[in-house]
Automatic annotation (TrEMBL):
Domain called ABC transporter: residue spans: 16-251
InterPro entries in alphabetical order: AAA+_ATPase, ABC_transporter-like_ATP-bd, ABC_transporter-like_CS, Metal_Ion_Import_ABC, P-loop_NTPase
Stated name of the protein: Manganese/iron transport system ATP-binding protein
Keywords: ATP-binding, Ion transport, Nucleotide-binding, Transport, Zinc, Zinc transport
UniProt-listed GO biological process terms: zinc ion transport
UniProt family annotation: Belongs to the ABC transporter superfamily.
Record-linked Pfam families: ABC_tran
The species this protein was found in: Devosia crocina
Gene3D superfamilies, A to Z: P-loop containing nucleotide triphosphate hydrolases
NCBIfam families in UniProt: PRK15056.1
Gene Ontology molecular function: any one: ATP binding
Length: 297
């Protein structure tokens, strides 16, 4: 019998359930040990941790790219291999994983999301073209459909890969650092889109270094450091104490170097996109636009 999940949740509509997962790479390094978390459908969850903490390894495990030495993962209640066969898992990669010099048009990238729906000849049908068009319209990139992918800005590239996930109609969407290299406006657009997708009952798992945005739009947070340190509703897990455990000195360094001011129980953390994160009584919230920052409250 499997060990019970930490913060045991019995959820109907299970989105992703990772139970005691351990991944050891060929060189003998165990990147993730005994990791457990569960995310229900209709959720945006943040996967938060420092570089090398194992976020990508968890993504790879959910996409079946790496084998589990122990434990198991189910996606929408089925084993990973079955969910992949049914084309249910979509992936939005980090910019660094993509060869931007490869000569391919925006609409061709989005069409790749349809491959799993086509037969082995990969002949696009009317429905496939319609899905590509709808996906590009949804991310406001229809006007760029004939552009070379390498000719786009960082935020536009992200939106094209989001459109690919939409064209695929993935019920579970894994997004690796979706806010790196995008401006605040694009970040807001992406967040708005993720909220719509959540309301459609999809599951989004978002790996991010941008702590500032997490309490704003992620319902759940999973803190990673070689294992899952904590997971659950963001208001319970995204606490100063848990973040310090996950980030160790890095969080303090981050605070020290970003004009943090401590007053009473509130610690202001000025994040890289200039929208500070504020810890009050150990809990985080983001400053609202217009709210004064740096002033005693
Ligand atoms: N193919 C591999 N073979 C051996 N070790 C690996 C491999 N891929 C990753 N690792 C190691 O596993 C650990 C976790 O790496 P992982 O890429 O999952 O971290 P991450 O949290 O995604 O980091 P980042 O934020 O930098 O993307 C690291 O120590 C890394 O060096």
């Amino acid at each position: 019998m499997n060990a019970p999940l930490r913060h045991a949740e019995v959820e109907t509509g299970s989105g992703i359930a990772v139970n005691g997962a351990t991944v050891t790479y060929r060189n003998g390094l165990t990147a993730i040990r005994d990791a457990s978390f569960a995310i229900p459908t209709g959720t945006i969850a943040a996967l938060v941790g420092v570089n090398g903490s194992g976020k990508s390894t968890l993504f790879k495990a959910i996409m079946g790219f790496v084998r589990l030495a122990r434990g198991d993962i189910t996606v929408l209640g089925m084993p990973v291999a079955e969910a992949l066969r049914k084309n249910l898992v979509a992936y939005v990669p980090q910019a660094e994983e993509v060869d931007w010099n490869f000569p391919v048009l925006v609409e061709d990238v989005v069409m790749m999301g349809r491959y799993g729906h086509m037969n082995f000849l990969r002949m696009a049908k009317k429905a496939d073209h319609e899905a590509v068009e709808a996906a590009l319209a949804r991310v406001n990139m229809l006007d760029y459909r004939k552009r070379q992918i390498g000719e786009l800005s960082g935020g536009q590239k992200k939106r094209v890969f989001l459109a690919r996930a939409l064209a695929q109609d993935g019920r579970v969407i894994l997004l690796d650092e979706p806010f790196t290299g995008v401006d605040v406006k694009t970040e807001d657009q992406i967040i708005a889109l993720l909220r719509e997708l959540r309301d459609e009952g999809r599951v989004m798992l978002v790996s991010t270094h941008n702590l500032g945005s997490v309490p704003e739009f992620c319902d759940r947070t999973i803190l990673v450091k070689g294992t899952v340190l904590a997971y659950g509703p963001t208001e319970e897990t995204f606490t100063q104490a848990n973040l310090e455990q996950a980030f160790g000195g890095v969080l303090r360094h981050f605070m020290l170097h970003h004009n943090t001011a401590e007053e009473g129980s509130g610690v202001r953390v000025f994040t890289d996109d200039e929208r500070p994160l504020l810890f009050e009584g150990g809990k985080a919230r983001r400053h609202s636009p217009g709210e004064t920052t740096g002033e005693p409250r």
